[in-house]
Amino acid sequence: MICLRLDLSAGFLLPNGAIRSPDLARVLRERLVTIRPKQKRRFLPLVPDVVIELASPTDDSDGLHATLH
């Protein structure tokens, strides 16, 4: 399995119209090749295969919950 790791400079346009920029995301390379070059210059129109969102001790649970949904 070949994946591309993306950091928080990458954003994703989800099917529900939400835009998310997780701390770390992985997308399978075979899924990325289906994205047109013009689409790659903006938020990627796909849901990442793996998402990691880091929480700090000062983050409140309501805010984290909202970020994840």
Automatic annotation (TrEMBL):
Pfam families (alphabetical): Uma2 (PF05685)
GO MF term set: endonuclease activity
Keywords: Endonuclease, Hydrolase, Nuclease
InterPro entries tied to this protein: Nuclease_put_TT1808, Restrct_endonuc-II-like, Uma2
SUPFAM superfamilies from the UniProt entry: Restriction endonuclease-like
Domain (Putative restriction endonuclease) ranges: 5-62
The protein, known as: Putative restriction endonuclease
Lineage per the UniProt record: Bacteria, Pseudomonadati, Pseudomonadota, Gammaproteobacteria, Chromatiales
